[in-house]
């Protein structure tokens, strides 16, 4: 075999192996682990039209985090009304399905939050289960800190103004944030940033 043929084989072998080593992440994996890259910052890396080509064609530029997270796989579900929410009074919701592990909390924080909707951008929603070992958080809202926790298992706490980032204790992943949209007075859940505890796919069973 000639030297040129040997070199060609080496190049081909490298090309076949390189995809296994690439740090690139699929859009689906990015949405499922959005918290690790900073929520909105991670979603904003998606190119215009990657998920919604019609918007790019219309010249609307980079899609918003809320729209990017709303994939065709996630249902658009009405979860409440702006006029019915009271500051620091969490409302229990179900999203994206009706399973026990898909409970969430819709909360009007009274202060602007990342990913918040409404006139003051203070309405957010999160999974009601700790990302460490699935401890229940639905009765652990702290109005002074605008946080959920401490979890009864290992005292994890999450900042609801900063995409559910972990504040203290054992959790290492952000609390999954339910992406919201507002239409008039109605609030709709349209996606989830992060992986819900106990699920390999947030839409399992939906």
Question: How is the topology of this model organized?
Answer:
Layout lengths: L2 H19 L5 H6 L7 H4 L9 H5 L7 H5 L7 E5 L9 E4 L8 E6 L14 E5 L13 E2 L4 E2 L8 E3 L5 E4 L8 E7 L2 E8 L13
Antiparallel strand pairs: 1-10, 2-3, 3-4, 5-6, 6-7, 7-8, 9-10
Helix percentage range = 10-25%
Number of helices: 5
* Number of DSSP-assigned strands: 10
Low-confidence stretches: 7-63
Radius of gyration: 20 Å
Order of strands, main sheet, comes to 5-6-7-8
- Give the integer mean of the pLDDT values: 77
Corresponding CATH superfamily of the domain at 66-193: Rieske [2Fe-2S] iron-sulphur domain
Q: Characterize the main sheet.
A: 4 strands, antiparallel
CATH-derived topology of the domain at 66-193: Rieske Iron-sulfur Protein
Beta-strand portion reads 15-25%
N→C terminal distance: 57 Å
Q: Strand-and-helix sequence, N→C?
A: HHHHHEEEEEEEEEE
CATH A-level architecture of the domain at 66-193: 3-layer Sandwich
Estimated structural class: alpha+beta
Question: What's the quick description here?
Answer:
With 206 residues, the protein is an alpha+beta fold.
Keywords:
4-stranded antiparallel beta sheet; Rieske Iron-sulfur Protein; alpha+beta; single chain; 5 helices; 19% helix; globular; 3-stranded antiparallel beta sheet; 206 residues; 10 strands
